[in-house]
Amino acid sequence: MVMSKMKFNLVEDPWIKVLDKKTTEIKKLTLIEVFTNTSRYSRLSGEMSSQDLAVMRFLLAILTTVYLRFDMDGNAYPWLDKKENFFVEPNKEFEKLRGNKWKKDILLTWKKLYDQGQFSDVVVQYLKENKELFDIFGSNPFYQVTKEEYNKLVEDKKRLTDKKQPGSVSLKQINRRISESGNSQAIFSPRTESTKNELSLDELVRWLIMYQNYAGTTDKSKIKDKEKVSVSAGWLYKINPVYLDGNDLFETLMLNLVLLGNDKDFYLPKPMWEWKNVEEYVDSLRTRICPKNIPEIYTNLSRLIYIDWNDSKHLKIYSAGLPMFNALNAFIEPMATWKIDKKSGGYLPIRRGLNTLGKEMWQNFGLYVKINQNDSDHKPGIVKWANELKRNGFLERDEILSMKMVDLIDDGNASSQMPAAEIVDDLTLNLDVIFDDSDKFYWPERIEQVIQDTQAIGNDIYYLGKDIGNLRKVANPQEYADKLRGNFYLRINIPFKKWLTSLSIEDDRDEKIIVWRTKLEKIIEEYEGNILSNISKKDIIGIKDGDGNIINIFTEFNKFKNKVYKHLKKEAL
Fold first, then answer.
1. How far apart are CA 44 and CA 56, in angstroms?
2. Could you give the CA distance from residue 359 to residue 353 in angstroms, rounded to a whole number?
3. Report field, pTM of the whole predicted structure over 0.90
4. At what angle do helices 49-67 and 101-116 cross, to 10 degrees?
5. Interatomic CA distance for residues 304 and 285, integer angstroms
6. Do strands 26-29 and 338-340 pair parallel, antiparallel, or not at all (unpaired)?
7. pLDDT tens profile 502-544
8. Partners of 90 in the beta sheet?
9. Which residue from 257, 246, 254 is spatially nearest to 42, judged by alpha carbons?
10. In this structure, what DSSP letter does residue 233 have?
11. CA nearest 435: which of 375, 494, 499?
12. How far, in Å, CA of 432 to CA of 400, rounded?
């Protein structure tokens, strides 16, 4: 079968995998079905959590595009004129946009949608009018380019001809559960060798969206540019993303439907598929200027991809690296966590490495929440958006807010950046606790102190492990110590999360902190008992230090207990 004669449109053909709330079955839906019945589904349920995040951002790009142009009833905002295909253009009122008038109109749209519990017809109308922009095949293929466009934009030596076809990537590389290139074999693949390069069309769509967000740096082909083009990883691969997790898919999409950016000015939304042509889009990427609207950054392409559909048995995909915009102070991105760039003094997105695999989200509490009134560090835009919703009374004061982190960690190899691990974690607290506005009893500051004390005890356990390792003359005391500390965090992770979720703005701070300290003491006692239950005669006899003093398992535990009591704010033994 010649695949170029086939049809597959994201608007009308099922490809989005969701979990049904009533039946708990996984279903495949069209874009129209998703936006029509969103509240029926618990969440997206694709092959990977990071794939679900990439698809969710694509859905959010559609919603943001529509509701930054039209209110819930499908009427264009007063400063915009409606054009064909539900596009808009600024009118004379646009130049007068000052103050908060436009923000009030847009926030009112969000509130009406949230209260209604479903998206309005204007989203489906937009999709139907523009369905040709979401077609996998045809003259303007979704998230792809034609062969002519590919050859025109890539470096001359990387053009596709009858004699040479450089820059190919296989389906098993697009599939990020395998991520197998031609140079290295995936050892723990979820597929057999004979099926690694097989994907249905709906699978291919999901992986294509994810690959544009999470491409590594193995591509050898690049586009032509006056400046040197470095092959960049996909944007989502760079930002340690965090989003808000709702009770169902509708609530999750609504909580993450950020309709106010970081700027006071209003910027028209422009997702990738609405650009006039691919050359114009690539020209915009060549400037390295960060987008000023959320749909554009959510649909940023990291690769120029051409798919040769003419042979269904040997599908050929060609990929060329595109320039990445400057990430410095790219605060238009709502889901990034930030760190100060020492060189410029600005902020860059945080990117986690393999060395952070054992670190829980709550241990980085200060990255997400303002820990004191003088905390000027930049927090994720999505958290600021939640505060905006709270300030306007759109969310209940005592509502529980769940921040979820999904991060695909690369292998640490700069020349490949192949996926090595996926981290999924959450941080759940009362909304009033996160955005405490009191001066004297500021909850986040107290929570941060508790976290620091708890982590200090984790370090105490690490040094206890090293001391025991040296006492027992194990081959690698540091490895033994890491294992002890890792087991400690496994023991306290769920109890600490439960404690965080239990906090409220009415709590006596000291009493609630004592509750956690008491729980922590019990966990430590049990942990000590487990270690001491395996002591040997040599542990008891011990060894002599350089001063001739006896060091044994009991002297090391006494030293450890002194440190623990200090961190628990009790008198040292």
1. 8
2. 11
3. yes
4. 120
5. 12
6. unpaired
7. 999 999 999 999 999 999 999 999 988 888 888 888 888 888 8
8. 80
9. 246
10. P
11. 375
12. 9
